[in-house]
Amino acid sequence: PNCILKMGLAVLLFTITFMVLHSDGEKIRTTTLPKQNTSTWPYGKWKTSWPRIPTSIFGANASGPENVTQLHIDGLYTLVIYGWQHEDNSSNWTHIGKRLSEQCNALKKSGSSSLCVVYRSACNTQPWFDSDYEAMYSGNATRQKTWFLQDNVNGGPILDGNFNPDPNLPPNQTWFWDFRNEEVQQYYPAHVIPPILDVDGVDGVFFDMVDYAVCGAYEFHPCDPSRPSRKPCGLEFPGGKDGMVQYFDGVWSTMKTIATMLEQKNKLAIFSSTNFMTNLSWSPDVPQRMEPGACIKPQDDAHKILSGTTFARYYEQWVDGNANKPGDSELVFNRSQCLWQIQNAIREGKEEVAFIGHTDVGPMWLTDPVKTPALLNVETSLAALLIASPLNVPSYYSFSFGRHWYDNSYQRIGLYDKDVGAPLGDAKQLGCCDGELLQNVYVHDALGHSDLFNVDLPSAQACSALCCNMSDCAGFQWTRKQIGAAGNCSDGGACCWVKPTIGRVEHWSYNTTPGSAEYDMVSGVKQGVTWQRQFEKATVEVNCAQPIGHIKYNY
Hints:
555 residues; 5-stranded antiparallel β-sheet
């Protein structure tokens, strides 16, 4: 819930009721959240870009400042974010904060009307930024013990990665801020933000990994032998769960202070977060990073802290997908993530939250981002953003090729320049009662629940009709070839399984041989896994069960 509330206006309360299907069987829950004054958008230079597709680029020239060609390409995008990787191959990587601001000024001087945003980390210190270096090394020894999360195994601040190619900087010295400490909460807005506030060319600040430390950080999870590079790992978070709650509240309270400072200068705070709101359907069996339930507190709690400020949400891996190996043509997406992210972004839009969706497509063996399957992945993730984009609040789509967090390819995709026109309304979510049948898809019950019953029915359509006539049916799974006798169904015959809850959505695409059990599987969900939206010049559709998205132009 996050647009500016003008001084003196009381906080308006509204009630959002969401029909959801929980793993605990609860079907309806009411959440009351503060709503902002909707007249605050457009805010400063930030406004919707319809009918132009709202594209963004995460740029960083590793060898030095952006050259004339790169600035021209950057200027074709509505939004440009300059990242921490800027000049990371140069021999002098100090004072990078100032140089990022200079980069935005250079973009504006080139004649570009693009919005320009500079990077800051909200989770880790990065000593190539002067304010972080000062916090790490200009204080006394006590500061290093109390301002940064401590390693309970090796002692001292937790070291997070080797990101220091500059010989003038200490190696392996990227630490976690400890936002439980009030001194840190005061230092960050007092030293990190002021140098940016009066830079005319900077329109906003991108804050990375805001709540990562308490939202699935591998440092505080058991070590994974299959990912030996993810170290340190298996550490204890200081203070346990109580410490994590204190950190969550501390970091988001600090972000609210910063967002307020920026909005007073007509600049926007963009928060990269791995968190999701509660009340989302299709909850996973085991929470992991970027899944509902992965964080110590839900996104709703962060929004309550941020109430009264204007900000944008950044999805680092928006409906992300890439082919597994050379020759792959099938899109490989996290199907449940597709569902959660679209639902979450639509809900955020209704609460006046701007958002940026970034997809990371590759992998590196693909040498050209405009060829299959990379381009198909881009179309699906872009279609998902067009489905979720609010009507009156800004949104932006960013694509980085080759599994990079910044786009060092500097290739603009022609898909961005095709005209879809402005949206003609909100997206519609289609379910089985609208005729949606999910071929080769197995819909599981939510954890802890089982099917209401099964029955021998001759077709998926008959199974769907049965479910749609039952108030307690959330979805179904039908097969032409039941494996083993069960309940009212015989071995080898047709069977309709009626489900009171919906859990994981599994696409059985590995066996499409006619007559196989996987081929004959058809499922349906009342709430639906397909979204469709009409634009002036195109129809956009995303099916998260496949998942596949298409932009169908009217010309």
